[in-house]
Design a protein that fits this description.
Oligomer: single chain
CATH topology of the largest domain: MetI-like fold
Distance between the termini: 61 Å
Radius of gyration: 24 Å
Order of helices and strands: HHHHHHHHHHHHH
Number of domains: 2
Amino acid sequence: MPNEFMDRLWKYATRTIAVLLVIFTIFGFLFPVYTVTVYPFSNEKNFPRENHRLVPPEWGQNGSLFYHFKDLFESKPQVLHTLKNSIIIAIATTFLSLVIAAPAAFGFSRFKFRGRMFFWWSFTFFIMLPDLLYANALYKMYFDLNLLNTYHGLIFIHSMRAIPYVLFVLYGIFQSIPTTLEEAAYTLGCNRFQTLVRVTIPMALPGVAVASIFAFLRSWDEFVLTMYLGGTETQTIVTLASSMLLGANKNPLQASTVSVIMMIPVIIFIFFTQKHMKAGYLAGAMARTY
């Protein structure tokens, strides 16, 4: 009996601790998002500077719930320009990362070659390096190559930072795909590239969707390298929001409003890619390859 009671007590205690940890983690993630999302729709005088309130005492300003958004676009016309830059760079980065990482992940998952582990751990080491470590060297190189403040310069470096993440995701997906299907494609006359494009990639679409989200978010949130290598023409919305918090004229309310605007393209992108991550989609992709 004592042992049974202690077992029950231990189960109850561990379950309670697990639930509390989950609640605490969810609250820790969602509360900042809630604060950033709610206060652009509140009255400016209620915006929290020292004392944070869970619910604003007054919604909207000057009779309009979207007053701060209208004021932002009027006082900061560059918001739309930076938003356009971020979308262009993030989409191009996602596409380039997938084009480069997909064949590389396929090669790592299917072939044994000399230097394979060296290249694999090189990608892993590259992820571990902080951006600041090589930002100065990149600035010098970009200056010499006349790549500063250019779209292709930022797309290149964003892609280099996103490719390892995409590679690791797709490697795991390719490892889970039976090689017998590829061998069947070879017997039907497909070469390796045709097999990758017509058989393996369609079956790996759930993983490609996840990898594209990683690449998109990696580019969308990139701050340090964009700040170092970008400029007025290629300024992204992330660097604009940071300037509202770190600049001489700090404006947390405008930064919060920009943050809400930043969420919209991300939500749209995830909405259009999540359908490829639904259960059973892999089986459907396999059926379409025949």
